[in-house]
Amino acid sequence: MKRTIIALFAVLMCGFAMTAQELDPATLAKRDARRNLVVKEWNTDARTKTRWLDRQTTYDSQGRKVEEIEYASYGQKWRETLEYGENGRVSREVEYDDRNKPVRIRKYEWNSDGTKKKQYNYAPNGKLQSVKVFEYVFAEP
After folding, report:
1. What per-residue confidence (pLDDT) applies to 122?
2. What tens-digit pLDDT sequence spans the chain (141 residues)?
3. Reading across the β-sheet that carries 116-122, which strands appear in turn?
4. Using H for helix, E for strand and C for coil, what is the string for 88-130?
5. What span, in angstroms and rounded, lies between the C-alpha atoms of 104 and 71?
6. What backbone torsions phi and psi does residue 22 show, to the nearest 5 degrees?
7. Alpha-carbon distances, residue 10 vs 63, 92, 114, 133 (angstroms)
8. How far is the C-alpha of 72 from the C-alpha of 52, rounded, in Å?
9. CA–CA distance from 118 to each of 4, 81, 91, 125 (Å)?
10. Predicted TM-score of the model (pTM)
11. What is the distance between the alpha carbons of residues 120 and 123, in angstroms, rounded to a whole number?
12. How far does Cα 96 stand from its chain's mean position?
């Protein structure tokens, strides 16, 4: 009985912490600063001073990351897009290869306290490959 009460208390506190974090002014300020932002990371060769694009991250009007692209000397190395559900959490991620062809699709389910519940991994043709289930166990002190 005592274990159950402790576990229930820990779960409730975790949910409260997630809510407090989401409402934290610093978190909201960071998100506001990223609204409609595109961040480009550049590399420069020390010897030749040649500069090339390394990574580009794009944020939406709510300050959430919606796309990330990694570049190599030959062009795009990979690209990932993120979609958000009604709960404001990532609901789907699509990873693309250097030819911009989908290679992996992930869909997520979330618990009411904001923790991940399940991750579904799909092949580009839509066939389910695997399911990852997240289990949260609070250790006794």
Report:
1. 98
2. 444 334 444 444 444 444 444 557 888 888 899 999 999 999 999 999 999 999 999 999 999 999 999 999 889 999 999 999 998 999 999 999 999 999 999 999 999 999 999 999 999 999 999 999 999 999 988
3. 38-44, 51-59, 65-72, 75-84, 90-96, 102-110, 116-122, 128-133
4. CCEEEEEEECCCCCEEEEEEEEECCCCCEEEEEEECCCCCEEE
5. 18
6. -65, -30
7. 30, 28, 14, 20
8. 8
9. 23, 19, 11, 20
10. 0.76
11. 10
12. 15
Whole-angstrom distance, CA of residue 130 vs CA of residue 122: 7
Q: Which two tokens stand for residue 23?
A: 């409402």
Q: Cβ distance 99 to 79 under 8 Å?
A: no
Place of tokens 């998100």: 31
Q: Would you state the structure tokens that stand for residue 67, as one six-digit string?
A: 């796309």
112's tokens: 């009411």
Taking the C-alpha atoms of residue 18 and residue 120, their distance in angstroms, rounded to an integer, is 23
Instruction: Return the closest-CA partner of residue 3 out of 138, 111, 115, 113.
Output: 138
What are the backbone angles phi and psi of residue 47, rounded to the nearest 5°? -80, -50
